[in-house]
Design brief:
The structure is a single chain. It is globular and about 25 Å long. It is mostly helical and 105 residues long. Helices cover 75% and strands 0% of the residues. It is built from 6 helices and no strands. It has one domain.
Length: 105
């Protein structure tokens, strides 16, 4: 979870460098809200699947997915996505959020 917060802080800093005072407040609020939603989803997923064999087997694929910005989609990761979405149908998380949550396990 710490790496997600560091990544979010870096993104916030990158957005803030060229922003005026007014747009900075709007941009900051938007980024903070998005980060909070992502972090909450990651926490929900992580706590639900921390001992699930299908999800744990997808960690290497999840790392490749995140590192390639979604270009590399392994079979184990696809199986984990399907398993998570079947188990938690109310969860509205992107593939990237799910992959990050798998890495946080």
């Amino acid at each position: 979870m710490t790496s997600l917060r560091l990544l979010s802080a870096a993104a916030l800093l990158a957005l803030a460098t060229g922003a005026s005072a007014t747009s900075f407040v709007v941009t900051t609020d938007t980024v903070v809200d998005a980060t909070r939603a992502s972090s909450d989803s990651t926490s929900d997923i992580s706590s639900s699947f921390d001992d699930d064999k299908i999800v744990l087997a997808a960690r290497d694929d999840a790392a490749s997915f995140v590192a390639s910005d979604g270009d590399i989609r392994g079979a184990r990761l696809e199986a984990a996505f399907k398993h998570i979405r079947t188990t938690l149908p109310q969860l509205a998380a992107s593939d990237l959020q799910l992959a990050q949550a798998i890495l946080a396990l």
